[in-house]
Amino acid sequence: MRRDLRFKDNHALFEALEADEPVVPLFIFDRDILDELPEDDARVTFIYERLEDLRDKIDGQVFEFIYDEPLKAWEQVIEKYEVKKVFANHDYEPYADERDEQVRDLLEGHDIVFETFKDQVIFEKLEVAKDDGTAYRVFTPYKKVWLAKYKKEGEQHFLSENRLSHILEGQPKFKLPTLKKMGFSGFKYEDMPTKVVNKRTLQNYEDKRDFPAEEGTTRIGLHLRFGTVSIRDLVAKAMDESEVYLSELIWREFYAMILANFPHVVSEAFKAKYDNVPWRNDEEGFEKWCKGETGYPMVDAGMRQLNQTGYMHNRVRMVVASFLTKHLLIDWRWGEAYFAEKLLDYELASNNGGWQWAAGTGTDAQPYFRVFNPESQFNKFDPDEHYVKKWVPEYGTDDYVEPMVEHKSARQRAIDTYKEALDKADG
């Protein structure tokens, strides 16, 4: 089990339970990842608590946990168990691809079959492709084909919960390590989003989703990230209740497809000529943005919400990303890395896609000459100032900082800088 922390509708678990052998669930706390994280990383606490829930759900049956580097962990498993086959769900991020190839080589060296399955998306890689078999680069035609394929084929659910009795009974050979033993202090959540998508929320989604002071979004991103909910269940609900919310789920699939087919986006612009933009990369300005001290209320509210809760409303994510890349002309990779560190619902594909969209460097991106006005965004989407005043209590007093840049001149500077860089690249 990796980013699929559920027993219900889990494809790899279903396939394992269908085999005529006892099944042992395994979770590896990957030191290659965890040892680089701060001790209060909230995502580790979330994972840990979900694993405790799953272990308790099959009390009396074996659930194994190992804290180590992946290959060393698998060597321990092979030594302790007579393993015939390993089942896992696909992961599409570059690190995961490399890790899985190394694990596959190790297991095959011991005559152990390693099989992986599609689980975290409806359609992967090139399952939705152009007529010539190549990947889409623009969302709208991708969405059209995605919907047609889904309506034609439907979606199979994997009834893994029905067969949990096939999990091996007895005592585990590897006990769940404590957070403290792994170097983590734990994190106390102020607001843990539920993994139940409310029908009313979906019905009101189109009207309320852009207003950060409203409870108008599903807040399901964290659960999607770690697979505590099934994407198949979510899509089925969205098909019935909200075309707009369904479109957001398809955006997630689109960005996953982009990452799988164009892995250079991790460190480079999707559109190569945008790598010529001469970013200012002002460290002092970046620090003000990180702290929410820019003098623009919507930007500051969003950054403070992120820093305090690990969450930021999606409309506000677009505003703060546009401000960093356009108003401050700071490299989108700086902002992407900061979000990766702070967001509970961080997914590489969606985070990268969103940042490149805001910066104008990505597929189907906001054009470089479109620069969000953070003041008009504030007035339009937080007209009663409830969101801003919650996160920026000094707003409207003499204690609130002056704007660090003037919108009109910063906007023009961004447009001129981008245009010059693109003209050079073209010519």
Automatic annotation (TrEMBL):
Pfam families, alphabetized: DNA_photolyase, FAD_binding_7
Cofactor(s) recorded in Swiss-Prot or TrEMBL: FAD; (6R)-5,10-methylene-5,6,7,8-tetrahydrofolate
Keyword Flavoprotein recorded: yes
Domain Photolyase/cryptochrome alpha/beta span(s) in chain numbering: 1-122
UniProt-listed InterPro entries: Crypto/Photolyase_FAD-like_sf (IPR036134), Crypto/Photolyase_N_sf (IPR036155), Cryptochr/Photolyase_FAD-bd (IPR005101), Cryptochrome/DNA_photolyase_1 (IPR002081), DNA_photolyase_1_CS_C (IPR018394), DNA_photolyase_N (IPR006050), Rossmann-like_a/b/a_fold (IPR014729)
PANTHER family: CRYPTOCHROME, CRYPTOCHROME CIRCADIAN CLOCK 5 ISOFORM X1
Family according to the record: Belongs to the DNA photolyase family.
Protein name: Deoxyribodipyrimidine photo-lyase
Protein source organism: Persicobacter psychrovividus
